């Protein structure tokens, strides 16, 4: 058997150079790479029209197939009519009959194939949805800056339920408090006489009465769907007694209707930057 012997002395005298490894520190970041950071994105700012649409969509959730609906007038109500037309076209609603509160709403609803009728044929309305120009804490309203206050009040008074849709800019502590118009519809005959009388009723509130013009820079008076004029009342201070003010206005000969909608709203849907709020009495 062969044997293997190891001469340790030879190893002792043999010089061995140690192996040294030098490593460059690793750069785990490429030159083009930027430091990683997390930034929260701000929520998109909603426009007034966005808020109106949110309120309108929420209100339409109360619409059921087979209902007779009062269709309001104005920029917010237009979103309601659009949504109802959309749901009818997709089959999510059916057998709806709309009662429009203006010629403008009638034309919009007809273009969306919403079946229409009148109070003469449907004297009781299941639900009306409309906008408002002012909403106070008691859910009393100023309406009619769109010029349809008479037909709006007739239709909404005939409704079992009346939902108001608005954005948060319409909230006021007292009616007339926005400083914007509170409309009064008057017959054309002796309109200036009634304008002076209306202004005199609320002299202590710093009221200024103006005949509404068509708004195209001309001096032509605005004419309602009913052939009447509108006198707009501008208050420096809120109206203290809405019911009393309404009675005084209505008592003037030649006054057709006023824009104080008192005790009529079942609920008010307000869209704000923090979400949707449903106000009920």
Automatic annotation (TrEMBL):
CDD domains: RPI_A. InterPro entries: NagB/RpiA_transferase-like, Ribose-5P_isomerase, Ribose5P_isomerase_typA_subgr, Ribose5P_isomerase_type_A. GO terms for biological process: pentose-phosphate shunt, non-oxidative branch. Keywords: Isomerase. Transmembrane segments: none annotated. GO terms for molecular function: ribose-5-phosphate isomerase activity. It catalyses: aldehydo-D-ribose 5-phosphate = D-ribulose 5-phosphate. Its EC number is 5.3.1.6. It holds the Pfam family Rib_5-P_isom_A. Pathway: Carbohydrate degradation; pentose phosphate pathway; D-ribose 5-phosphate from D-ribulose 5-phosphate (non-oxidative stage): step 1/1. PANTHER family: RIBOSE-5-PHOSPHATE ISOMERASE 3, CHLOROPLASTIC-RELATED. Belongs to the ribose 5-phosphate isomerase family. This is ribose-5-phosphate isomerase. It comes from Gossypium tomentosum (Hawaiian cotton).
């Amino acid at each position: 058997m062969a044997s293997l012997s190891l001469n340790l002395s030879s190893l002792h005298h043999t010089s061995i150079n140690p192996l040294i490894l030098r490593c460059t520190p690793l750069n785990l970041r490429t030159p083009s790479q930027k430091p990683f950071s997390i930034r929260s994105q701000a929520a998109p700012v909603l426009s007034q029209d966005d808020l109106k649409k949110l309120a309108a969509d929420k209100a339409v959730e109360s619409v059921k197939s087979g209902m007779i609906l009062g269709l309001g007038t104005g920029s917010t109500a237009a979103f309601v009519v659009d949504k109802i037309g959309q749901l009818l076209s997709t089959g999510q609603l059916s057998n709806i009959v709309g009662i429009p509160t203006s010629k403008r709403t009638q034309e919009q609803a007809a273009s969306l194939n919403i079946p229409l009728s009148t109070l003469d044929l449907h004297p009781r309305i299941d639900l009306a949805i409309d906008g408002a120009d002012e909403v106070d804490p008691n859910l009393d309203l100023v309406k009619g800056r769109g010029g349809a206050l008479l037909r709006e009040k007739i239709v909404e008074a005939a409704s079992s339920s009346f939902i108001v849709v608005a954005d948060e800019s319409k909230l006021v502590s007292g009616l007339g408090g926005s400083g914007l118009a509170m409309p009064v519809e008057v017959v054309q005959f002796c309109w200036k006489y009634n304008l002076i009388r209306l202004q005199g009723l609320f002299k202590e509130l710093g009221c200024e009465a103006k005949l509404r013009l068509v708004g195209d820079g001309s001096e032509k008076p605005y004419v309602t769907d009913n052939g009447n004029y509108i006198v707009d009342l501008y208050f420096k201070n809120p109206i203290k007694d809405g019911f009393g003010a309404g009675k005084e206005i209505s008592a003037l000969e030649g006054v057709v209707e006023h824009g104080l909608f008192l005790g009529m709203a079942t609920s008010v849907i307000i869209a704000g930057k923090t979400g949707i709020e449903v106000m009920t009495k």
